[in-house]
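User: For my dataset I need records formatted as: sequence, then structure tokens, nothing else. Please produce one.
Assistant:
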Amino acid sequence: MTANSRRKALKARLASGEIVVAPGVFDMISVRLADTMKFDCLYMTGFGTVASYLGEPDAGLATYTDMLNRVSAFCAAAQTPLVCDADTGYGGLLNVAHTIRGYERAGAAGIQLEDQEFPKKCGHTPGRRVIPLEDMVKKIRVASEAREDKDFQIIARTDARTTLGLDEALRRGEAYAKAGADVVFIESPESVEELEKIGKSFDLPLLVNIVEGGRTPQLTPAELQRLGFALAIYPSAGFLSVARALEKAYGEIKALKGTTGVEGEMMPFKDMCELMGFQAVWDFDKAHAD
């Protein structure tokens, strides 16, 4: 699929009325694995990507160049539409326009922009502060104007719920929708009642962020669909699972037990070789052997 066709496919799925579930991808192994599983969408998580690429917290430390590098690599490796985190747009309005064009040309199917002050904080963590509503409206307008492909999805996220309350978050979501956002993302609702209120407040697709151990109730996709959500992202499921598995395997090695006790929980080596494309290397070597 071309980038344009992936964008068209995602836009159509979000409008279908059937919820789309998107696992968080954060490195090339997670991208390749998720891409084989025929999801309708993948989500490039800022937390996981910054952690795996820079070994730093998702606190505004990654630059536009850092993230564009990952967007380009992820999109080149996957046929599945990718929605990619772009934090606050990496600066002022000119930077936002530059970010939109960069992510779009790299092959992303959608981009997430948030209304936090710089430096931003990861969602579901304390200390998040938002910029004035009018400033974010300008960012969304610029983003909408800057895209070349109208199927490129602009996801407007507000972090106002945690510090300013749900009513302010809803007010901002409505303003961002009017400014040109294709999808509204109210971050960190804290109850089923709040999720229900969000679902009833908008006519365009809504995104819900499911973070294990986070602020938002973990409902099933079917329940979230009934409440009115079109896209459920699971940004942390992958890297939390990998971190725990590594901790266990490395612990066995540290305890001088080897890995026989955990080998059954690992992907077989031959399957990993297949996932990473070694068969093409072996076929090439065979074809060009002396």
